[in-house]
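Worked problem 6 (solution included).
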Amino acid sequence: MPQSPICCSLPPTPYSLLPDTHLEAPYYSTMLPLFPLTTVLFPGAPMPLHIFEPRYRQMLADCLEGDRRFGLVPGEQAEPGAVGCIAHIRVAQPLADGRSNIVVMGEKRFRLLAIESTEHPYLMGRTEDYEDRPESAPSPQDQGVLIELAGRYRELLRVLMDSAGESAEWSGEPVPLSFQVAALLEAPLEIRVRLLATRSTTARVKALIEVLPPLLREASSRVEVHLRAPRNGVGGPHHEIVAE
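Solution. The predicted structure is:
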């Protein structure tokens, strides 16, 4: 299989080597229902999900009766040390056959400390908050470059999706800005996992600046093809995320 031309300077971080980030007063409960999925949810980003597996139907029902939150862990399995993102259920649409369509919003990141034995059919994990180091703020120059590159990339994606809606404003704060941009990327899972797991805002911003130019070239080529193709009044393809 050919290697992706998109690279990222962030090094792979084995789960066992992720730094401890114990905080005195975590905002969220340390126990979370866990949903392993081969995608990445970033703080502040929405994500549609289709829930059909029986154990996750039960998880959804339990979450809706509680605080409407669960932990989305990137990958096929949830392993101690993994960095995930708390998913807050904003919309839940039950279907006649027991399946559901939901929309979640990414909240804070967490680090999975351990899988706990419970009576639930789904996994429960003991977690801790996982934040960027306060001394890791990027330069205003890097933030400006990131906004310029990300703005161009977002406009290309809007053309590909035939979107006419208003784009959200970029955050003026570096941490949420970096996650806004990361959530846009149509990049390999490994790169998005690294972007989620890094605790240096500067490193994340620099990695995004590195990753965006090849993505811009790829998106530009796709836009040229898209604009030349016969139009039939139907918008571009929308990727559906299916929870298995």
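Discussion: The beta strands are 31-37, 46-51, 69-74, 83-94, 100-116, 124-129, 242-243.
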